[in-house]
Each structure stands twice: as structure tokens, then as C-alpha cells.
Design a protein that fits this description.
The chain is 50% helix and 16% strand. Helix 1 crosses helix 5, helix 2 crosses helix 3 and helix 2 packs across helix 13. It starts with 10 loop residues before the first strand and ends with a helix.
Length: 250
Amino acid sequence: MSETLDTSALDTVSVLGMPVHLYPDYVAWLHSRLDRHLGTHVVTLNAEMTMQAETNPALANAIARAELSIPDGAGVVLYLQLLGHRVKRCPGIELAQTLLSQLDSSRSVFFYGGKPEVVRQAAETLKQQYRNLNLVGVRHGYLSDEERQDLTRELQQKQPDVVLVGLGVPRQELWIVEHRHLCPNAVWIGVGGSFDIWAGVKTRAPDWMGNNHLEWAYRLYQEPWRWRRMLALPKFAFKVLGDFGQRKVF
């Protein structure tokens, strides 16, 4: 990878106080970080996370400190487009999967999170799909205190190059901040419910819904219990309108 791919090359834009980094090829940038043994925390920013950060200082700090914050959610993308940025949505699941597909067997990967049967099935599915995938560890997200201690020892011993953490927001972001020192050269990505998708337990929204910023509606259809969390979306919209009103854009 080119040495010009560096953090200094990332444009940073604020979305209601949270940073988003703009770059034409995030995966290439991550490869560059791996090549130079530079540890990286990747945050996949969406409207819900942005709203959570307003009342959760620890989460806000984790997002602010992350080396890479990508525009995952439709609301974030629309906000950036209204600011005049030519940006497309970069779903975290696609970023993670593209990175995995491009790794050779010299790069090691670790999965942490999800239900026991789900993360195991996700691991099997991806190993069949990507024959070069060097998966050195798989741990579910329901560990006892003793098992969590075993996990930290395993990470220290194996030093994976990429760690995917599926504990949900904000737990995964806070966990990464607390534990990334165990593998200081790794790329750490909070992947939310991606293990469920890879395991076949859940499905992603059809392309036409994703292309029209309606993936949130499909997620609500699959998981109606999320309705309380979805209240963050109108709150985000009102905050955006207020922000643009202050800017006198409208």
C-alpha cells in the first residue's frame, strides 16, 4: 500500500459534534495501517450512535478518539450531503467483510461477540467463503468473569491483526477502548449485529431500501422491540434541522 495513505489524508467533518472521516477507499487505508503496524479503532457512525453520545460521555470520547469514523447510517450521510460533501454510505458490515475478503493467510483475525451458536456459525460461513481467512479465535459475548480473563490472555498471546467485536452500541466501543492495548497493532472494528447476518439468523434490507435510506425500517420490521431505540432517528432529524437553522442553510 502507498505510504501516502495516512491519517493526515483523512478529511474530518463534524456531525452534531461527532467526527466523520472522509476518504475514497477506507479498506485501502486500513491495509496501509496494518502494513505499518498502526493500531486502529474503527467506529461506524449512525444517527442512533450520535444521539447516544450526547448523553453518554464515555461513548462520545470513544468516538472522538477513534482513528477512523465512517458514515454508516443514512442520517449521517444525508447530513453530510446537505453540507455539500459528495459522500456515500459505508455500512460497517460491508467494510468489515471487504477487509476480511482481502486478507491473506498471514493476517490473523479474531471474533468476539454475539450468541454462542451465532458467532460459531458466522465463523464457519466466512471461513468457507474466504479460504485465506486465518481465524485464530472465536468467543461469544456471554462470557463469565473467568472466561473474560481467559479472553484477554488469549488476545495477548495470539496478537490478531484484526479484531471484530459484536457487542452492540455502546458496549462494543467502550470495550474496544478499554482493551485495545492488548493488541496495540490491530485493527478493531465494532460490527454490531453483523455476526447475525453472516450466520444467516437475520438478513439485510433489500438493496432498494438501502439505496433509499430505508434500512432502518427493515430493521424495525425484523426487530420490533427496537422501536424505543428508533426514537433516536426523529431526535437526530430535529437536531439536524436546528443545526442547519443556525447555519442559515435553509
